[in-house]
Specification:
Two copies of one chain form a homodimer. Chain A is of the alpha/beta class. In chain A, about 30% of the residues lie in helices and about 15% in strands. Chain A has ten helices and 14 strands. The first copy, chain A, has helices at about 130-145, 155-170, 185-200, 220-235, 235-240, 260-275, 280-290, 305, 325-340, 365-375; strands at about 15-20, 25, 30, 35-40, 50-55, 80-85, 90, 95-100, 115, 120, 150-155, 175-180, 315-320, 345-350. In chain A, strand 2 and strand 3 form a beta hairpin. The longest helix of chain A has 16 residues, at about 260-275. The two termini of chain A are about 25 Å apart. The interface between A and B is large, with 56 and 56 residues.
């Protein structure tokens, strides 16, 4: 453990779990078997009352904290929040962090082999919903012997899973922490997702999702999808502060291929890097799950009614400059919870970083999350 | 004239003007000759003091008002504002509306024949700046015998041309009307433009801009560029009101090719329609001109200094829900004008439609523009 920071969970290794009981999906199809890859941090207590489920966002995965090997330069994606003494304190909690079904980091997804055909699912992998994820995660909880989560926690799409958990399994969630989320997508949110999908689908290398069979990947489409997404993760102000109109070189080139402004260079890099490491079919699945998420829908659009049987206490957190899922969207959830007489704490954090703020070590945010999590009762 | 509304300029026909004096461009290159196509509405008075220049935005053209033939179902793009008794009243004003240099509607642009090679310019057409447009429009004013515009008026990128006119030709502009514009692009603005450009440039049918030689057009790229652009033209609220989460059909399809939500259908239609009628190289040029626009830059970033020699009175208008060029961006211009002791009126119009509001017949907006324009003195 020597090289790692004292408040790190240190070296971690992913674990696998196979499920052979068929999983009926919202789309009507069934997955007869599936695997989930996940990581855990901390120790499950004797009464199994200290388990926290961390749900990841669109491009996330199971590696939320710590390091995979001694040479890793970057820890897991939420290392700022998970570790000994951190807001989700691994001295108290046993944290479970799965890669979502449909993912491209080890859980069964479009890149996996379909046992029925012996070939990778590719475009035939069924479209998933947030509910499907929650049900698959419930199977994982079963195998770990976790009857009830001390908390289900997530940011963005992860927050939506936390909300759905509280609705789908009221007896199995004591606390729901939904950060930078929304009870459903707006038309603008769907519109951005649709641009990302069209970028991927119209890439000639997409081959209707069967690009693997052609030995190519729709890099251009993925790059564009990520570029669009990335703009929505940052606030106008934070982009301005980070890049302004700073030029890449000291004079303008007046052509279309050169990079004139730093922000262009940054976006291209983000897009290219992402296109090399993320799967296009998984990206499509994730954006669709986002679009479809709307727990109120089954109750005639009445979110309060959807929350009627919830037993979890809620902590809802939003960030002032987040325009992807603005504070107003979090307040919709808070208002519905209050109307349903459910206990809810709401925090609007002053932060310049836009939607990405939920991933960052912002003192007031960390303190608030810490304070809430530390008040959750767990047996010694 | 029978079939047209009484407040329409009626049947109009584009006019052409050729220029053979070389035009030195900001990029360092020179256009030895060029054509501009333009329309005029109303009558130039004897003292030539009633001429108004209307500048178009990114995807605009010279056809701003009236109809090209008796069967036209749609009038010009700013017909709401130009006509007898309308805010830019053709009973008083002689309106000149050119298609910008580099355009794809008749003015010399990437699709035109390069007289030196006998082939279309394509990718070799020089990159243009807002200043270049203003200089080319000044040539047009010369040929029309217009020494001084009663007003130069424009929205969005058109507003930037109006601002640049007041700076480049202080003696030739009495009034500058800049609507839904900004004194320069933000990092986020540039980022959206960069996504649009990358969509076009990475389309395999782009062929480095020489798609014409291959008999194809980069439709996918143009479609994506327009989709991204379109999201930024509408406010989150107006998209919500227009589409909400309304489904296209009465049930979800759970696949990637079907259109689930109305907003997806709308965006795809907008993108496809645009890709069939607009030129990709022109789109690249327009977004670059937007990025480069920064009149303060030549004055060490001091906008007040850039406006020092301006003699025009300014009317600046912004719209509350415009997040592409928000009211704050218009206020930057207003503050700099005030600091430079220039006369300026500023109006922030309450409007739900976002950036697109500048094109729409919003009563308070129309009244304000009318009131301002009617107070401009012109000889009988």
């Amino acid at each position: 453990m020597s090289g790692f920071p004292a408040d790190s969970v240190g070296l971690v290794a992913p674990q696998h779990q196979s499920f052979s009981e068929p999983l009926r999906l919202a789309c009507g199809k069934t997955l007869n078997q599936f695997d989930l890859v996940y990581e855990t941090y901390g120790t499950l207590n004797a009464s199994r009352s200290n388990a926290v489920l961390v749900c990841h966002a669109l491009s996330g995965h199971h590696h939320a904290a710590g390091y995979h090997n001694a040479d890793d330069r970057k820890p897991g994606w939420w290392d700022a929040c998970i570790g000994p003494g951190k807001p989700i304190d691994t001295n108290r909690f046993f944290v479970v962090s799965p890669n979502n079904l449909g993912g491209c980091h080890g859980s069964t997804g479009p890149g996996s082999i379909n046992p029925r055909t012996g070939k990778s699912y590719g475009a035939t992998f069924p479209v998933l919903s947030v509910e499907d994820w929650v049900h698959s995660q419930a199977r994982l909880a079963d195998t770990l012997g976790i009857d009830c989560w001390a908390a289900v926690v997530g940011g963005s799409l992860g927050g939506m899973q936390a909300i759905q958990w509280a609705i789908s399994y009221p007896e199995r969630v004591r606390h729901c922490v939904a950060i930078a989320a929304a009870p459903k997508l707006s038309a603008q949110n769907i519109a951005f997702n649709e641009v990302a999908r069209q970028a991927i689908i119209t890439d000639p290398d997409f081959h209707n999702g069967d690009y693997a069979a052609f030995g190519v990947i729709p890099k251009r489409g993925l790059m564009l999808a990520r570029m669009v997404g990335h703009i929505t993760y940052l606030s106008d102000d934070s982009m301005g502060e980070k890049f302004g109109r700073e030029l890449r070189t000291d004079r303008l080139n007046y052509d279309f291929t050169s990079v004139e402004f730093q922000v262009e260079s940054y976006l291209r890099y983000q897009g290219q890097e992402f296109s090399a490491r993320f799967d296009a079919n998984t990206y499509l699945l994730m954006t669709k799950a986002l679009d479809y998420f709307d727990p109120a829908e089954a109750h005639g659009g009445d979110l309060t009614k959807a929350l009627e049987h919830v037993r979890a206490r809620f902590l809802v957190i939003s960030f002032t400059t987040d325009w992807r899922f603005s504070p107003a969207r979090s307040r919709e959830l808070v208002n519905a919870l209050m109307a349903a007489n459910k206990p809810v704490s709401y925090l609007e954090i002053e932060a310049a970083q836009g939607h990405d703020a939920f991933l960052l070590p912002i003192p007031r945010y960390a303190d608030a999350l810490s304070g809430y999590m530390n008040r959750i009762e767990v047996d010694a």
